[in-house]
Amino acid sequence: MAVEKMSIAKALNESLRHALDTDPKVLIMGEDVGKLGGVFRITDGLQKDFGEDRVIDTPLAESGIVGTAIGLALRGYRPIVEIQFDGFVFPAYDQIVTQLAKMHARALGKIKLPVVVRIPYGGGIGAVEHHSESPEALFAHVAGLKVVSPSNASDAYWMMQQAVQSDDPVIFFEPKRRYWDKSEVDTDAIPGPLHKAVTVREGSDLTLVAYGPMVKVCLEAAAAAQEEGKSIEVLDLRSMSPIDFDTVQASVEKTGRLVVVHEAPVFYGSGAEIAARITERSFYHLEAPVLRVGGYHAPYPPARLEEEYLPGLDRVLDAVDRSLAY
Amino acid sequence: MTVESTAAARKPRRASKRTSAAKKPQSSEPQLVQLLTPEGERVEHPDYSIDLSAEELRALYRDMVLTRRFDAEATALQRQGELGLWASLLGQEAAQIGSGRALRDDDYVFPTYREHGVAWCRGVDPTNLLGMFRGVNHGGWDPTTNNFHLYTIVIGSQTLHATGYAMGVAKDGADSAVIAYFGDGASSQGDVAESFTFSAVYNAPVVFFCQNNQWAISEPTERQTRVPLYQRAQGYGFPGVRVDGNDVLACLAVTRSALERARRGEGPTLVEAFTYRMGAHTTSDDPTKYRADDERAAWEAKDPILRLRTYLEKSGHADEAFFTELETESEALGKRVREVVRAMPDPEPMSLFEHGYADGNSLVDEERAQFAAYQASFADSAEEGK
């Protein structure tokens, strides 16, 4: 049976297994990805089935993981590297930004860098410092990188396949607090394009745009608003670089209102980019300024305070009300 | 033990003259592998014997002379405003030609940004190296044509790429090797330390070739390390060797040996080529501000080209006609470099949008269209003005 209900974690595991199985050049690298199967068990059982040469436990050195993955890609391999947590990507940030992102352009297109960097990201799991951040804008700002994040199991399965097949480096943000959320995956389906935004709920009064962990919150907010007679459309952006502005524009020109929701700090965040572009594209269709809901310009707080920091149902609904009040 | 050092030992946390980084540690008296003395005498080394024909010796000499000539031309072109910047290799010809000629075609090279001599050995047209210094591209050659990767400006990054590539070579079951070039300054970078760790752990067939040219811009080697650099390898579990970097024969022999070790599956080696950068770090800095004149004079006496010339002449391996002919060839190279650089066209404006991504990208498409329309608006207004 091709259709199966599975968690995002399971879908990623199945997807990685499929990638290893289909292409002998695909490698998985990272800290603890072998016997342990990763701290979130996303690579569970893969080393057992594909061996230590394909699923490679690495020294504890993020720059080394990405830097050697670049070298392996230059040799013709397709490495998928796991960064254990969002806040640990920064030792590798130099290799990602100054090397991985630019090498194809520097070689005038003669070489390709098919490296996938998997990063479990975002908060809401009560973790300690550096385990709950949403640094996607820092990567989306860099030309040469693609940045994506699935919000459900089907996308986790298919977007990972597409990321591995991409000849460009892809930063693959996994919404860690949704790892255990289950939904249906059709492993025989023909997936849509990797960078296409998807309308996950139709509506006519206002558009909510989100990605990754915030899609679920926005769907709940739309359902709650429905009870008050408000018709909210919800878009799952799926890709933060590039962004499918056409789909966002079409929705906004239908509803006249836009609220962007993400966990990352609002300041200089992806919401700012979406607000600016949509204002340029759809100025005369907007009934209200584009509003943003997200994290504050503060260090990610300790776990006992993260519910205040993270956008929840009430904050999204508050923004919906403010927009509709214009 | 001196009174001074005893006093220093009693106050270990106090900065004293003895612990100041300005004081040279024992590395100032290196144990060098040497096969050709600064006076041009052939000497033997128990571990690194080499037997080259007169023709091979002349070829090494030719490589060094032409590389120096190319480098001098590039420096002159920078002074004339034809290049924005140049990183001269003056003084490092032996380290680069010796190691470069140790490589096989199927070996892969990861250079920093000063390896013009290694590029020469790989068959990269020297004028291709000038595009990035002129500002028309950021590389400009296909790394896979000559197995010579693009120059890397961020210090030490390429040592990890070399290590990963070497891991791939081992996975492929190939018997080629990989070489990573870097400098004494780069030895302070975390990426270099990580590349040592990874290459040791995975037994990768990579040779780390550190050209210790004594200066990282204005910072001396003593600002990078308290132990001789080649000794670092021991802590990672692979051999390190210090070679006279101004001795092309020793550089060839030591690198060849390290590459063979890698091919045999015995893992990485660190080669420290002890040499000297005769000029500035790049044309942007002024070495007279940070180093003494007598230091350069002392190193001039160890010049890599002069010593091989002395040996060639004394041994009768080259006659006057060879040197005259090489001089003519050298001038022709200089002329060609001059002409090619001056004729290099600026890139087309629309090329801004090329090669950012291998796959298509809607954001790039959108901005390209906007830029094209903007560019076209000038053509329209020119049309209207007629």
Describe the structure in your own words.
The complex is a heterodimer of chains A (326) and B (386). Chain A has twelve helices and 14 strands. A seven-stranded mixed sheet of chain A has the order 3-2-4-5-7-6-12, sandwiched between helices. The model of chain A has no long low-confidence stretch (mean pLDDT 97). By secondary structure, chain A is α/β, with parallel strands linked by helices. The longest helix of chain A has 15 residues, at 8-22. Chain B has one domain: 3-Layer(aba) Sandwich (Rossmann fold). Chain B has 14 helices and seven strands. In chain B, helix 3 (93-100) runs parallel beside helix 10 (248-263). Mean pLDDT of chain B is 92; it is low at 1-27. At the A-B interface, helix 3, helix 4 and helix 5 of A face helix 7, helix 8 and helix 14 of B.
Order of helices and strands of chain A: EHEHEHEHHEHEHEEEEHEEHEHEHH
Uncertain residue ranges of chain A: none
Low-confidence stretches of chain B: 1-27
Report, as a whole number of angstroms, the end-to-end distance of chain A.
50 Å
Class computed from helices, strands and strand pairing of chain A: alpha/beta
CATH superfamily of chain B: Thiamin diphosphate (ThDP)-binding fold, Pyr/PP domains
Question: Which structural traits does this protein have?
Answer:
A: 326 residues, alpha/beta, seven-stranded mixed β-sheet, five-stranded mixed β-sheet, 12 helices, 37% helix, B: 386 residues, five-stranded parallel β-sheet, two-stranded antiparallel sheet, thiamine pyrophosphate (chain B), PdhA/BkdA (chain B), pyruvate (chain B), oxidoreductase (chain B)
Give a quick summary of the entry.
The complex is a heterodimer of chains A (326) and B (386). By secondary structure, chain A is α/β, with parallel strands linked by helices.
Detail the topology: elements first, then pairings.
The complex is a heterodimer of chains A (326) and B (386).
Chain A: E1 3-7, H1 8-22, E2 26-30, H2 46-50, E3 55-57, H3 62-74, E4 78-82, H4 90-100, H5 103-106, E5 116-121, H6 136-140, E6 146-148, H7 153-165, E7 170-175, E8 182-186, E9 198-201, E10 206-210, H8 214-227, E11 232-236, E12 239-241, H9 245-255, E13 258-265, H10 270-282, E14 291-295, H11 306-309, H12 313-324
Parallel strand pairs in A: 2-3, 2-4, 4-5, 5-7, 6-7, 10-11, 10-13, 13-14
Antiparallel strand pairs in A: 1-8, 6-12, 9-11
Helix pairs in contact in A: 1-7, 3-4, 8-12, 9-10
Chain B: H1 3-10, H2 54-79, H3 93-100, E1 108-110, H4 116-122, H5 131-134, H6 143-146, H7 157-172, E2 178-183, H8 190-201, E3 206-212, E4 215-216, E5 219-220, H9 232-236, E6 240-244, H10 248-263, E7 269-274, H11 293-300, H12 304-315, H13 320-343, H14 362-385
Parallel strand pairs in B: 1-2, 2-3, 3-7, 6-7
Antiparallel strand pairs in B: 4-5
Helix pairs in contact in B: 2-3, 2-4, 2-12, 2-13, 3-4, 3-10, 7-8
